[in-house]
Amino acid sequence: MIYLNERNILHMDLDTFFVSCERLIDSTLNNKPVLIGGTSDRGVVASCSYEARRFGIHSAMPMRMAKQLCPEAIILRGNSGIYSKYSTMVTDIIKENVPLYEKSSIDEFYIDLSGMDKFFGSYKLASELRNKVIKETGLPISFGLSINKTVAKIATGEAKPNNKIRISKGTEKPFLAPLSIRKIPMVGEVTYKSLCDLGIKKIRTVQEMPYEMMSKVLGKNGGSIWKKANGIDNAPVVQYQERKSISTERTFDRDTTDIIKLKTILTAMTQELTYQLRNGNKLTACVSVKIRYSDFQTYTMQKRIPYSASDHTIIPIIMDLFKRLYQRRLLVRLIGVSFSHLVEGGQQINLFEDCDKAISLYQAMDRIRKRYGSRAVINASGMGAKSIGRSNPFNGEAPPLLANRRL
């Protein structure tokens, strides 16, 4: 039996993941400030290189502000298909080499190596796994190894960029003490401001406070912060389960009633998601369309369908749902498409519906997309969509991603 005080928890994080993927495709981006995200005034930074961070840029910052801080930055819309592909590659490597892992986002993993010291050595195993990821994908990755998820994640942040660190049992509090309270994962901007107003800026200050005082000041949240500041976290590594839905949506720079534009973008969105289905060997049994009007009223409509991953089957259904849903004739602020009730396909597309010619066509198009990007081949009806929008692929939480920058 493995007790909690014998745990070895590894946290691995792909460094500036989206930027690193782009640099694998285009080496001229190396050592330059790179921003990925929406390019309009409403856009935000989804990811940025370390060179850009030196100017004070960070993820979730408005793109307009980022441009002001670093006018020479290279701005890319990003490619969700490419990021999904590399994330899957890393996931497969981890899956093949460890007994238990949790994928907490598209580029982050928790791995339970408890008991491995008896046979291999947890730090050695973690180092070998990191080297394998770097060698087989070309992506930089950092890790932190400690007795729990909180300390391991904070350690990874201190190890970056592209490095590793182990916090041995008994050294958690000294390691955490000099760090900013903002380093604790659950401390967001609002909580951080509240703590600063109380004169709490370093983790050491919380460590020196009684648990009851933190609980009294910040309630249950305060008690959780106190425990994490003291290196206490018994949360288990939860076995990774793949998502049961995927979606994408777009918020317009200017609200619109252009029906042709809306249908064009919906077509492009649907084709992007069906490609993700086939690439992930998945089928969907439920599709839905989402509309948000200029007054922020939001409506959705869905339909159950026979399991499929075919453009020619799903696009007409999406168009029909949109026709039935778009009734108010007001300016549209946002549209989106989602697929749910996903299952393993066993084949790339529905062999019961599609002829050999259609199957061969999809396979040929998907081979081109895998090599040149998900928007390299598109339906004529979707060509007008220069950007697709915010995408949420299978493998974990994803920030805003937009269409292939080459278009």
Automatic annotation (TrEMBL):
Tell me the active site: E108
Q: Which GO terms describe its molecular function?
A: DNA-directed DNA polymerase activity
Cofactor section:
Mg(2+)
Please give the catalytic activity noted in the UniProt record. Answer: DNA(n) + a 2'-deoxyribonucleoside 5'-triphosphate = DNA(n+1) + diphosphate
Under InterPro entries, the record lists: DNA/RNA_pol_sf, DNA_pol_Y-fam_lit_finger_sf, DNA_pol_Y-fam_little_finger, DNA_polymerase-Y, DNApol_IV, Rev_trsase/Diguanyl_cyclase, UmuC
**Sorted alphabetically, which PROSITE patterns does this protein's record hold?**
UMUC (PS50173)
Entry annotated with the keyword Kinase: no
Q: Where in the cell is it found?
A: Cytoplasm
Q: What is its main location?
A: cytoplasm
| UniProt site positions, description: Substrate discrimination | F18
**Keyword Transferase among record annotations:** yes
The record's section on PANTHER family has:
DNA POLYMERASE KAPPA, DNA REPAIR POLYMERASE UMUC / TRANSFERASE FAMILY MEMBER
Q: Which family does it belong to?
A: Belongs to the DNA polymerase type-Y family.
Q: What is this protein called?
A: DNA polymerase IV
Q: Which organism is it from?
A: Lutimonas vermicola
Biological classification of the source = Bacteria, Pseudomonadati, Bacteroidota, Flavobacteriia, Flavobacteriales
